[in-house]
Design goal:
Residues 14-436 form the SpoVR protein-like N-terminal domain. By secondary structure, this protein is α/β, with parallel strands linked by helices. It is built from 20 helices and 9 strands. Strand 2 and strand 3 (99-104) form a beta hairpin.
Length: 510
Amino acid sequence: MPASKARLLFSGSDWDFRKLSQVYEAIEEVAVEELQLDVYPTQLEIISSEQMLDAYASVGMPLMYRHWSFGKHFLYQELLYRKGGRGLAYELVINSNPCIVYLMEENTMALQALVTAHAALGHNHFFKNNHLFRQWTDAAMILSYLDFAKDYIARCEERHGLAAVEEILDAAHALKEQGVFRYQRPPKLSSEQQRKEVRERLEYEERSYNDLWRTLPNSRESSEDQNQAERKKKLNLPEENLLYFLEKNSPALEPWQREIIRIVRVIAQYFYPQRQTQVMNEGCATFVHYTLMNMLFDRGRISEGALLEMLSNHSNVVFQPGFDDPRFSGINPYALGLDLMQDIKRIVTEPTQEDRDWFPDIAGSGDWRRVLLDAWADHRDESFIRQFLSPALIRKWRFFLLADCADEPNYKVASIHNERGYEKIRSALAHSYEVGANRPDIQVVDVDLLGDRHLRLQHKVKNGVLLEDKSRDDTLRHVKRLWGYEVSLASVDAGTGATIADRATSQIAS
């Protein structure tokens, strides 16, 4: 039945702010009542293509300090856009409270409704409820912190000069991939807890004291080992967050330089959950906009023409070329995420016997909303795929697993979408989304601050993959610039601990 024009939220392609407000309110009402979404208050902003390009250059944030790399990125994106090499996103959303959503002024009204549901409800809910964002980001404070960062760096440029600030920013930007905490750190002990631990340690030493130990000869080697162990314990080594260690312990940095490193580190940490949840985040937003638009159509709030336009844009977003298609550039997170969400809904409401065997806890339970809400809150990409990728979806995507051995001339198809291959394919796909497993594991392992101050880093080599020589040497120069003394990097086998290679800044030409 055609929708009654009297009940339509909009007609035609033109939009104005009153229509945007009405559409948002109608979408939010359905999202909260039907999908049980929990969102931050939303702030909608309309921007031009030039402003969207500017947002791309400044990592999508409305406030950002100045750096030459942002300008370079802007010019590159602008060139691609002007020559038709890339399009622009229909929207941009900020993980903040209120949640800021940028809408392109070129969008039609139907497209504005679609991207409002996608960003202002889907992404918004995911930002507010996923455990990684709750653990690592402060949505209420990020905008004020960026305002502080922009103002602080501008004042540093006035006081210390552009070149001096740029030198620190260059080094910090080069290290920001190694400037995040990947795991929750234990809370700091209160002074009372520290005193209690000291008392307990002294009491234990008194109880376990034996005068016979006094007669044993002193070992210089064991004393050095003990000093090294105590030194590492005091500095909380090994330390995975290189920028954090440099900020807190570098003997060469002035206070203003430490604060700049902290700014880069805090912003890098803010974006870390987004790298871990791209499939889930985009899948959640796509599932939400697709479900909400169909609900509104069923209620007669949008017309058939508007729905067809929305479905056309939706199909473009979730298009997945085959592996042998010239357009293939990897797995589309929108497509995989949406299929995973829809497959969960199918398993919960219309399970097969295969689904009951693989997912006994949720198959046929009926409440697909609760299952999805719990999954969006509790998982990241790696665990979500490992938990919910079904054999039916593996068959639909025709997934297969390649074994690539360097000493063999050809690839080997190790597993295909059949009974024997499901587990291996699911595990391999999940592992490919494990951010920590697919980035270099580099840690600070030792430094004697009272001695030569030689900073020792360690790279745990997995599957024999070493760091690229030029990149490694350039990065070590940046570390030395921030540390001020000799820096070395030992590459060790992650399994055996054997040293494979060792490189020091003294070996690198200036």
